[in-house]
Amino acid sequence: MLDRINARFRREPFTAAWSAGGALADAGLLLHIFDGWEINGNDYVAANTGMSTSIIYADMRPDCCPNLKIPTYTAWATGVQGIIFRPGPTTRIMCGTSTDSTNGKCKEWCPSVSLSDDYDPHHSPSAGGCRGSWKPEDFGPFLHRTNLYEKQVQSIWGRRYDYNEIVVDGEHWSNHLPHTIEAFFRSDDHGKARKNDEVARQQHLKFITEYGLSAEELPLLTFDPHNWHHPFS
Q1: Percent of the chain beyond pLDDT 90?
Q2: Strand 220-223 vs strand 181-187: parallel, antiparallel, or unpaired?
Q3: Please, which residues have CB within 8 angstroms of residue 116's CB and are 6 or more apart in sequence?
Q4: How far apart are CA 173 and CA 171, in angstroms?
Q5: Where are the domains of the chain?
Q6: How far is CA 85 from CA 29, 142, 145, 162, in A?
Q7: 196 exposure class (CB count in 10 Å sphere: 0-12, 13-18, 19+)
Q8: Using one digit for the tens of pLDDT, what is the confidence trace for 107-135?
């Protein structure tokens, strides 16, 4: 499973099968960082219809600044730990945005575009060329556009690569447990290793106990946001 997860991180999501129904494509990794908006005491259960996640993939690494970390949301209270979603119909995407949507909800739809459409990130008013939300079937082109903007504009002038926000159907997530979740993860980053260990290990143990799974079937991984080839171990 570990090799499969790292291999999917290295797979570009631009030409992946993104369906109008919202099934998660098998390219890149969709993460949810525990942020306090889950069911109290069960961080792996969604509390709202719309839940915030983010997709990461190796091609995000900017040529100008190879030392920049893999972009992820950092919850104010809990650091960086959470879950990796399983690709396929057990995870339903509602919409996506190129930056933080601020409210975890879908906004006005961006017009559909294709990978072949002309897009100049240097003359774009925003990442991806639209400040609204992407329809699930348009994820490939908008992830590609956002990546161009972040690599050619944002990382050069701002010395950062902003994370995207993907809103998933929380009710669908909860109704399809345990199959929604492929793995839990923790991270030593941000100087919160002890608290990360406590939260991630407790939630992982609670989950596999509740659903009668082994740690081999559903592992607890370590995430290294500085490792652009094998970020999970």
Answers
A1: 73
A2: parallel
A3: none
A4: 5
A5: 2-223
A6: 7, 20, 23, 21
A7: buried
A8: 999 999 999 888 999 998 888 899 899 99
